[in-house]
Amino acid sequence: MIPSNFVFHEQEARAIDFGACGFGYYLFDLGWTLSYIHPAFRDQLLESYTQQFDLPHNYVQRLEGFFVAAQLETMNFWLGLPEANEWLPCHISKLARREFKRYVNKEEFLFSGTPYWE
């Protein structure tokens, strides 16, 4: 789920458009969602999530892996956008230098650092 796929009705958030949701491991969808939320606010989402569902003990490592996978999958979509050549190289460079590098080096990034869109 991404932020643009929520509508609000009577003070309640409701999800729409499940086309990008995975059909496998549930944390994949959560990793995808976290990729659109600033690192400073991700813990708040997970705190709310754990009021309804349990997370495995190594959830940070798993979520970071799914975050990376979601970004790689999203690149396939971005490549088809007509104006992608104007911003995509910079975007990919930021992802590679920040989140991807930290992931490969086994350094946590989920709750810290500058997000790829800044």
Notes on the protein architecture:
By secondary structure, the chain is mainly α. It has one domain (22-104). It is built from four helices and two strands. It has helices at residues 26-34, 39-49, 59-78, 84-104, and strands at 6-9, 12-15. Helix 1 (26-34) packs across helix 3 (59-78) and helix 3 (59-78) runs antiparallel to helix 4 (84-104). The chain is globular and about 40 Å long.
Key features?
118 residues, mainly alpha, 52% helix, globular
Which segments are poorly predicted (pLDDT under 50) over 5 or more consecutive residues?
none
Distance between the termini: 21 Å
Number of domains: 1
Largest sheet: 2 strands, antiparallel
Provide a count of the helices: 4
Number of strands: 2
Q: Structural class, judged by helices and strands?
A: mainly alpha
The main sheet orders its strands as 1-2
- Helical content, roughly? 40-55%
Overall shape: it is globular
What is the residue-mean pLDDT, rounded to a whole number? 87
Secondary structure layout plus pairing:
Elements: E1 6-9, E2 12-15, H1 26-34, H2 39-49, H3 59-78, H4 84-104
Antiparallel strand pairs: 1-2
Helix pairs in contact: 1-3, 3-4
Summarize the structure.
The chain has 118 residues and is mainly alpha-helical. It has helices at residues 26-34, 39-49, 59-78, 84-104, and strands at residues 6-9, 12-15. The model has no long low-confidence stretch (mean pLDDT 87).
